[in-house]
């Protein structure tokens, strides 16, 4: 089977982790002290939460880290059952290492019901001598307060454009692929700080061509080019409704994009349009409304026409 690059290029050590500098420093101090409290990793997808947990385990436990690290996904089973069975069973066994504890990494911990979280809190306390928990979640506010207060909280942030670009360049180099600056910018723009998404797009693009430029990236992702979407909106704002509509239709047909895809792209483009903030706010408000209608099942062609009509009217005010 072909390698999956997100796994192939998952950093093995804390030093290899890109960005998240403060987090990495704090984790290194646990390695040095050979001890750690329970940890709560909060932040968006693909920013290094699982990666940091595994790298920490590797550095703490050495070669046989797998025996001391157990990964569970809470969203598979959201109820109290998972805490009473799987988590407890693993937590109660002795640590198979000389550090004195092992780690349970619980991904998507915010999927657990409040009851299950309350049971988890008791388990964490009962076995804290031999077992440390790393809870991973998107929003720490979805974790009950008594757990939050027993954990050191780490807030992961979306990765910086420069950091993502550096990593993508490194991966492309290692795979013998050429990538242009335009292509890097396009991937960064589409991935929104999610490194997993960025690396997946790079791999999809590399499957199409050894030289990856912007066109290849948009072809691989099936999205419209940013300039094309921008052009549609600019035409509408300039009062050229029919032209804008024709161009948008062409994009929809040629690329087979759904209304939802297009609305998401429009949403991102609005921020960079050369218009004043008041108008941006107005357009964003309307875009949100239209997106809601499309998601709820309204006819997407009519809704997109309505949105362009709104842009046209707003532009002529
Ligand atoms: N900070 C980072 N430095 C280098 N690579 C990263 C980083 N963050 C993510 N990656 C890459 O993206 C992949 C996914 O990252 P990871 O599993 O750590 O995400 P996560 O934050 O745990 O997301 P989720 O909440 O979806 O589980 C990794 O295999 C790695 O290749």
Give a quick rundown of the structure.
The protein has 317 residues and is α/β, with parallel strands linked by helices.
Structure notes:
The protein has 317 residues and is an alpha/beta fold. It has three domains: 5-155, P-loop containing nucleotide triphosphate hydrolases (Rossmann fold, 3-Layer(aba) Sandwich); 161-221, Helicase, Ruva Protein, domain 3 (Orthogonal Bundle), CATH 1.10.8; 226-316, Zinc Finger, Delta Prime, domain 3 (Up-down Bundle). The protein is built from 15 helices and seven strands. It has helices at 5-8, 21-33, 49-61, 80-92, 114-126, 145-148, 161-174, 181-191, 195-208, 214-221, 226-237, 241-255, 259-270, 277-295, 300-315; strands at residues 38-42, 69-73, 102-107, 131-137, 151-155, 178-179, 211-212. The chain has a five-stranded parallel sheet with strand order 2-3-4-1-5. A two-stranded parallel sheet has the order 6-7. Strand 2 (69-73), helix 4 (80-92) and strand 3 (102-107) form a beta-alpha-beta unit. Helix 2 (21-33) runs parallel beside helix 3 (49-61), helix 8 (181-191) crosses helix 9 and helix 13 (259-270) packs antiparallel against helix 14 (277-295). The site of adenosine-5'-triphosphate has 23 residues, from helix 1, helix 3 and helix 9.
């Amino acid at each position: 089977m072909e390698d999956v690059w997100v796994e192939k290029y998952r950093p093995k050590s804390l030093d290899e982790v890109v960005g998240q500098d403060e987090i990495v420093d704090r984790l290194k101090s646990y390695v040095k002290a050979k001890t750690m409290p329970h940890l709560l990793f909060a932040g968006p997808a693909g920013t290094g939460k699982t990666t940091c947990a595994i790298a920490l385990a590797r550095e703490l436990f050495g070669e046989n880290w797998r025996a001391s690290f157990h990964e569970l996904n809470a969203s598979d089973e959201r109820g109290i059952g998972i805490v009473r069975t799987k988590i407890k069973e693993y937590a109660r066994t002795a640590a198979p290492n000389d550090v004195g504890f092992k780690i349970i990494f619980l991904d998507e911990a915010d999927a657990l019901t409040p009851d299950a979280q309350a049971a988890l809190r008791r388990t964490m306390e009962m076995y804290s001598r031999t077992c440390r928990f790393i809870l991973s979640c998107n929003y720490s506010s979805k974790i009950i307060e008594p757990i939050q207060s027993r954990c050191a909280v780490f807030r992961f942030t979306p990765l910086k454009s420069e950091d993502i670009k550096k990593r993508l360049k490194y991966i492309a180099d290692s795979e013998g692929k050429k990538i242009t600056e335009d292509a890097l910018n396009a991937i960064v723009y589409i991935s929104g700080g999610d490194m997993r998404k960025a690396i997946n797009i790079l791999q999809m693009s590399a499957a199409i061509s050894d030289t990856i430029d912007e066109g290849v990236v948009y072809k691989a992702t099936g999205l419209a080019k940013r300039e094309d979407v921008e052009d549609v909106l600019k035409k509408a704002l300039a009062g050229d409704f029919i032209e804008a509509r024709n161009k948008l239709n062409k994009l929809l047909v040629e690329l087979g994009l759904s209304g939802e895809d297009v609305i998401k792209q429009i949403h991102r483009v609005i921020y960079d349009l050369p218009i004043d903030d008041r108008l941006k706010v107005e357009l964003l408000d309307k875009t949100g409304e239209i997106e809601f209608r499309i998601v709820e099942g309204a006819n997407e062609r009519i809704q997109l026409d309505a949105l362009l009509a709104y842009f046209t009217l707003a532009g002529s005010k």
